[in-house]
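Q: Convert this sequence to structure tokens.
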Amino acid sequence: MDLVFCGTPQFAVPTLEKLAESGFAVRLVITQPDRPRGRGQKPAASPLKLRAQALGLSVIEPEQVKINDALRAQLESLQPAAIVIVGYGRIIPPWMLALAPLGNLNLHASLLPKYRGAAPIQWTIANGETVTGVTTMRINEGLDTGDILLQKEAAIAPDDTAVTLAPRLAAIGADLMVETLRGLEAGRLQSRPQDHSCATLAPLLKKTDGRIAFARSAQEIANRLRGFQPWPGAFTTFRAKQLSVTAAAAIAPAVPVLEPGILTVEGERLLAGCGNSTALELLELQPEGRKRMPARDFLHGYRPRSGERLGE
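A:
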């Protein structure tokens, strides 16, 4: 089966590898152009581009897709049976949706219709879910609204972060995409529409999503900390400077009850009051301009006092 593959991040790499090793003919890989990355902001290739080149596959990096006559002519000449899309980061135009007989097939990192959008893994964890999964679907002109082909569940461990969960979902999804293509090829796989009334959104993360609102319960804050890794993380202010919280544990109920944002020092433990009579034990912190440090070192170095407030 001739395929075109569109993707950009590391999450897309296992699917490309699995398709290549399973005997599918990936005629073309489309990825986003090199972008400035890192401290020096030098142009760097996407993870998918690097892997595609290592596999000896043809790669192109169009600046735009919606209006691109050259790209359209190239894809029409290839006549792919399907276009596989994993984290490409571009809206697929109608002309491309109509191109392949089996459709534009997307691997999405949630159990649709829940968590439609750009950051499903992050928001799934941030919202305290214990089960997630992956979905293969046919893309339409909506935001993750296309018909579902296959789904597979995966458990979320209490200590999972977006960083630890993403590779597991990517591996599960790679196998599921192969199963999807085999099923479509054999004519034994039927799609089904999503129940749009059950849809939830997982919008692109913003820096402000990482700001800790201590009016939330400690468990909510801990979940958001896990979900928003590696960016935007979880942060507040302490003595007028930014303080990142890189590890924490929820305590409920807190004794004594602390006002949200108020610190208390218990020996070598540092707790912050949260909503619903809960508290957050701060286990690892990163003061502005410093490296991460355990709470014990923070206590010895900064000597916070019980009654001081975070977030001011």
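The mean pLDDT is 97.
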